[in-house]
Amino acid sequence: MADENLLVIDGLRDVLTLKNGEAAYPVDGVSFTVPRSKTVGLVGESGCGKSMTARTVMRILDKGISVAEGHITFDGEDLLALPEPKMRDIRGNRIAMIFQEPMTALNPSISVGKQVREAILLHEKVSRAEAKERVIQMFREVGIPEAERRYKSYPHQLSGGLRQRICIAMGMICNPDLLIADEPTTALDVTVEAQILELMKRLQRESGMSILIITHNLGVVADICDEVNVMYAGQIVEHATKAEIFNRPLHPYTIGLMDAIPRVNGDMEHDLHTIPGTVPALGNFPEGCRFCTRCPFADERCRTQAPALEDAGDGHLVRCFKPQEVR
Ligand SMILES: Nc1ncnc2c1ncn2[C@@H]1O[C@H](COP(=O)(O)OP(=O)(O)OP(=O)(O)O)[C@@H](O)[C@H]1O
Fold this sequence. Notes:
This protein has helices at about 50-60, 85-90, 100-105, 110-125, 130-140, 145-150, 160-170, 190-205, 220-225, 240-245, 250-260, 270, 300-305, and strands at about 5-15, 25-35, 40-45, 65-75, 75-80, 95-100, 180, 210-215, 225-230, 235-240, 310, 315-320. By secondary structure, it is α/β, with parallel strands linked by helices.
């Protein structure tokens, strides 16, 4: 029987060299799984290592960054050991990635239809006419009005919402097993965001794909995720099902992120709490718990010893000496 997990990330550690010559680990011992046909969230503020984790799965790390330790298994295959030509087959074909700002993912000088058509021609032996037909069909499926006319449009002629739909069409055109969506709705207004999330859910229902969604927005998590991993300063600090995370958040960082959700019926200005301080810079992580400098509950032990990620019951994992029970 096939493994229930499509993607398994195990003890992943990425290394780069800082200007002062010291090694730093923006992704530092990260483990989590993405089950088949499920949506998993990777959540945290900017700079926690979420994007780098995703780029490691795609094997598109910037020059100077490499994998120091760990394994990534995709559908039973050791991704990090695959020769680059095999990885190229998987990228875009079995694993697709969509990005926060679609403008940077699209080529400004080629019509959007042709760009998506190229994604088919790269992986499949079909005629151009047939590929074009499929692109137009996919444009319709992702809700692009006047799909035939839009085929000839250039990225700058489209709204942000339409551009993101083009990117989703490009991601979906080869029917991937795993879609990695890195802040796919951050640049969009809330109405368009809701439409895009609805679209991803529908495509998942129809195709059975798994989704790994990266976001700093717990509203997005509430909408779309089955499971959640909260990341802070290169490490997973909490993991649970969506229901568990929202009903029983344990890590003070997760609780802080929840307090930062604006209340729909409240006064935005007053209800928008934020966690004091910022994510520590690479190479500047505090000793002990990495969150201790911002944590209202930190004591001497938190400042000197590093907590491990431990099971608080039923697979709800938390990296904290003083997990909180908030009601
Ligand atoms: N090419 C690079 N060279 C050096 N440091 C980098 C590079 N790319 C990212 N970093 C650093 O690695 C850390 C993790 O970055 P990453 O982009 O993965 O965070 P993130 O949580 O995904 O944030 P964002 O949502 O802004 O993308 C940050 O401290 C960042 O400054």
